[in-house]
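Worked problem 6 (solution included).
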Amino acid sequence: MAEVEVFADVWCPFTHVGLRRFVDHRSERGVDLGLRVRSWPLELVNGQPLDVDFVAEEISEIRALVAPDLFVGFDTHTFPTTTLPALELTAQAYQGSAAVGEAVALELRDRLFERGEDIGSPDVLAEIAASHRLDPAAARSVDIVESDWAEGKARGVTGSPHFFTPGGDFFCPALDVRRVDGHLRITADPEGFDRFLESCLGA
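Solution. The predicted structure is:
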């Protein structure tokens, strides 16, 4: 099966938009195309965890101008202090099968952004692992996350999300992100997303 890879972090709101849009379009077109979500650990890339207030600003812009249907459960009080265990669980799931890996990657983001759960919590991770017949203890190795990070750097990943399709690679194809007079401005990028879809799903 052909496959689209994406290097991304769980707490990146841009990734949540991109993955949801990709999955929706894949379903609409009935295309048999795998999705492999790789680790791009922003707390290691940046040397510190994401700032929840900055993420909240990004989400506010996305909901206002792009996706009012998303991030309905986002809660700054349950925002995780780390995503490394969640990234490790995703990597472990993919070692079992691509289908389980994709399901775990999407569920983690749904729980964080749509249900307002702390996906850094061992209890939440254990519940997700159990529902997919995974052992959360077996995933506790940051080595696989750092391995993805190293591979991403070697392949020219510029940030989260960075997609690699059968026809090319695309950074954050669903959104146009910029600052205008010091204010964050996030809008949809339909032309960029169409190019991305054509590259991975076919015209």
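Discussion: The mean pLDDT is 92.
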